Amino acid sequence: MKTLWKVSLAAALLVGGVYLYADDDEMEHARPTQSKPLSKQDQSAAALYKKECRACHMAYQPSFLPKRSWDKTMNRLDNHFGTDATMDPADTKTVKNYLMTYASTNDRITDMRGGVALRISQTSHFVREHREISKKMITQSAVKSIANCNACHTKAEAGSYREREINIPNYGRWE
Ligand code: HEC
Ligand code: HEC
């Protein structure tokens, strides 16, 4: 009985997960979750990614950027947005491989000038999606930077960016 309950709960969560992202069609290239479950090996790579790359900001979902973006970022961690984010070479390889595996397959994701996008926040789709947000909402101390996704998207770390989950500090929900 107990097991049955657990199984149906897991099934409900799974279906729920699929449903959650099914309405994000226009966000095609920005869809932040993987539809296929991670293999054991990929799970440990994902954990390593979170451990290493979440020291200074949230662990952005790999599917926000295409392969060539992650490739470039992982090849120049010593010069990472004004900081040094280098780590053990073997770990770098594992994390890079993980990011490349789950990267977006949409190679049209570029920066505003058509070059390789290093920032999610400077891709044209992102900029368009966030154009109505005022400067003050971003520069306030509770947010500081548009790269601080989880300041406004309360479930960003879990890979969910639905509108009803947005809560901008000191401004509230986005209507
Ligand atoms: C030592 C601190 C540090 C570590 C460790 C770090 N980063 Fe960063 N990262 C930064 C800073 C600083 C920025 C710029 C943030 C801003 O503009 O507000 C940044 C920005 C980014 C951005 C662009 C965000 C956007 O869309 O504007 C990506 C992508 C990124 N980092 C990926 C990674 C990955 C992958 C790792 C792990 C390999 C990593 N970071 C580890 C400091 C770090
Ligand atoms: C200052 C608050 C704020 C920050 C920081 C922020 N966002 Fe947003 N984001 C919003 C708001 C508000 C919207 C809805 C805009 C609209 O509908 O006009 C939005 C929309 C989105 C959407 C589209 C959701 C949908 O269902 O249409 C995605 C995806 C998204 N943001 C991802 C990100 C990512 C990734 C980051 C960090 C790199 C980020 N956001 C940083 C406020 C923020």
Structure description:
With 175 residues, this protein is an all-alpha fold. The protein has a domain at 39-111: Cytochrome Bc1 Complex, Chain D, domain 2. It has 6 helices and 2 strands; from the N terminus they run ααααααββ. It has a two-stranded antiparallel sheet. α2 (40-53) packs across α4 and α3 runs antiparallel to α4 (89-101). The longest helix is centred in the N-terminal third of the chain and has 21 residues, at 2-22. The chain is globular, with a radius of gyration of 17 Å. Mean pLDDT is 85; it is low at 1-30. One heme C (HEC) binds next to α6.
Pick out its properties.
single chain; 175 residues; mainly alpha; Cytochrome Bc1 Complex, Chain D, domain 2; two-stranded antiparallel ribbon; 6 helices; 2 strands; disordered N terminus; binds heme C
Strand and helix layout:
Blueprint: H1 2-22, H2 40-53, H3 67-75, H4 89-101, H5 124-129, H6 135-139, E1 167-168, E2 172-173
Antiparallel strand pairs: 1-2
Helix pairs in contact: 2-4, 3-4
The site of one heme C has 18 residues, from helix 2.
Lateral strand order in the biggest sheet: 1-2
Predict the CATH topology of the domain at 39-111. Cytochrome Bc1 Complex, Chain D, domain 2
Task: Name the CATH class of the domain at 39-111.
Answer: Mainly Alpha
Query: So what's the overall shape?
Result: globular
> What series of H and E elements makes up the topology?
HHHHHHEE
Ranges where pLDDT stays below 50 over 5 or more residues in a row are: 1-30
What small molecules are bound in this structure?
A: heme C
Overall average residue pLDDT: 85
Report how far apart the termini are.
43 Å
Name given to the CATH architecture of the domain at 39-111: Orthogonal Bundle
Please give the count of helices.
6
Helical amount among residues, as a percent range? 25-40%
Strand segment tally = 2
